[in-house]
């Protein structure tokens, strides 16, 4: 009984904070046509304090969506265009000699921001990725002998193009695992495309103004952290992740030759965190199995390794995840 009272209080608390979601969604709708899944995914990553990787062909408003989100929050935003000749110092900064002070001073790079857009992240070599990795995982940057804490909130919002593979580098598995979600962006439908044309041939462009502060985000995250996850839901999350590692134990014999490695424990953590954020978007103080299923593909598709057999048969990670969700018992 006590627990239900807490849930009721939590629902009221969520209702009081849900205005933030409404304001961001309204602001995003001014510049982005359709792409509801993209907008929801960006909101989940914002509320769950997790980095996000957007994959899609050029022209699907990936960069625009990230830029719009950053503009709606009164925060520091920076964009890094990843190229093969990019250096770690171009991302994190470097030591610069000051003739006036007669000593070396730290010149901070663009990673010192609240929102960092890593555009075409797979175009830069491993050294750059390792520099970004420290910022993503530790929320800090080391330049010379000094370590700097990054301001909260700190989000890396990365994009990559799945088609053009020339001049690209596959991202290290360790770094890909640091992204809370990898979201695949699809084409708009015909009606949305007509609206896109109308919006873009107008001479005046809508300017986006900040509607919330970084403090609002930090306070809302505290509410998201209070969302209740029952033990049955925890067991469900663990079963989904374990089914990707030991498919035969779950009657998924057909997947054993397709999966080369299963999802890491970070997948379990990310599923729980993203499910909470999704429950918040739905105005609920507790997580239900549908919340887990709603975020499962985005959280796990980049954490499952596929074998050569899977690639030869054009089997994607999404099909594997759907097979797991169909088989694992729902609480």
Write up what this structure looks like:
- With 331 residues, the chain is an alpha/beta fold.
- The protein has two domains: 2-200 and 212-220, P-loop containing nucleotide triphosphate hydrolases (Rossmann fold, 3-Layer(aba) Sandwich), CATH 3.40.50; 227-327, Helicase, Ruva Protein, domain 3 (Orthogonal Bundle), CATH 1.10.8.
- It contains 14 helices and 13 strands.
- The chain has helices at 2-17, 19-31, 36-48, 62-72, 88-92, 126-138, 173-176, 190-201, 214-225, 231-245, 265-281, 289-300, 308-312, 317-327, and strands at residues 51-55, 73-74, 77-81, 93-98, 103-108, 115-119, 140-143, 146-149, 155-160, 179-184, 212-213, 259-261, 305-306.
- Strands 3-6-9-1-10 form a five-stranded parallel beta sheet. It has a two-stranded parallel sheet with strand order 2-11. It has a two-stranded antiparallel sheet with strand order 4-5.
- Helix 12 runs antiparallel to helix 14 (317-327).
- The radius of gyration is 21 Å and the shape is globular.
- The two termini are 21 Å apart.
- 37% of the residues are buried.
Topology overview:
Layout: H1 2-17, H2 19-31, H3 36-48, E1 51-55, H4 62-72, E2 73-74, E3 77-81, H5 88-92, E4 93-98, E5 103-108, E6 115-119, H6 126-138, E7 140-143, E8 146-149, E9 155-160, H7 173-176, E10 179-184, H8 190-201, E11 212-213, H9 214-225, H10 231-245, E12 259-261, H11 265-281, H12 289-300, E13 305-306, H13 308-312, H14 317-327
Parallel strand pairs: 1-9, 1-10, 2-11, 3-6, 6-9
Antiparallel strand pairs: 4-5, 7-8, 12-13
């Amino acid at each position: 009984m006590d627990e239900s009272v807490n849930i009721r209080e939590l629902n009221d608390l969520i209702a009081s904070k849900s205005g933030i979601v409404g304001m961001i969604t309204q602001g995003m709708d001014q510049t982005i046509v359709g792409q509801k899944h993209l907008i929801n995914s960006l909101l989940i990553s914002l509320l769950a304090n997790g980095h996000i990787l957007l994959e899609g062909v050029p022209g699907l408003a990936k960069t625009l969506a990230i830029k719009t989100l950053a503009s709606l929050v009164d925060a520091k935003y920076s964009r890094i265009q990843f190229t093969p000749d990019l250096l770690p110092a171009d991302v994190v900064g470097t030591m610069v000699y000051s003739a006036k002070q007669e000593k070396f001073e730290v010149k901070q790079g663009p990673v010192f921001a609240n929102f960092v857009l890593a555009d075409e992240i797979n175009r830069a070599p491993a050294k750059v990725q390792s520099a970004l990795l420290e910022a993503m995982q530790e929320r800090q940057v080391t330049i010379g002998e000094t370590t700097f804490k990054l301001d909260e909130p700190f989000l890396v919002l990365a994009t990559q193009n799945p088609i053009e593979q020339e001049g690209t580098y596959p991202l290290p598995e360790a770094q890909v695992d640091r992204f809370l979600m990898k979201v695949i962006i699809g084409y708009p439908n015909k009606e949305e495309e007509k609206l896109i044309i109308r919006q873009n041939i107008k001479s005046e462009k809508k300017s986006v103004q900040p509607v919330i502060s970084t403090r609002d985000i930090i306070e809302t995250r505290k509410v998201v952290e209070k969302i209740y996850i029952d033990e049955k839901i925890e067991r469900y999350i663990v079963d989904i992740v374990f089914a990707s590692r030991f498919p035969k134990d779950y009657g998924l014999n057909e997947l054993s030759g397709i999966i080369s490695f299963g999802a890491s424990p970070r997948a379990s953590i990310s599923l729980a965190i993203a499910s909470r954020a999704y429950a918040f978007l739905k105005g609920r103080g507790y997580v239900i199995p549908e919340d887990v299923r709603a975020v499962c593909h985005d959280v796990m598709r980049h954490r499952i390794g596929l074998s050569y057999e899977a690639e030869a048969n054009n089997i994607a990670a999404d099909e594997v995840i759907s097979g797991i969700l169909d088989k694992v018992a729902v609480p």
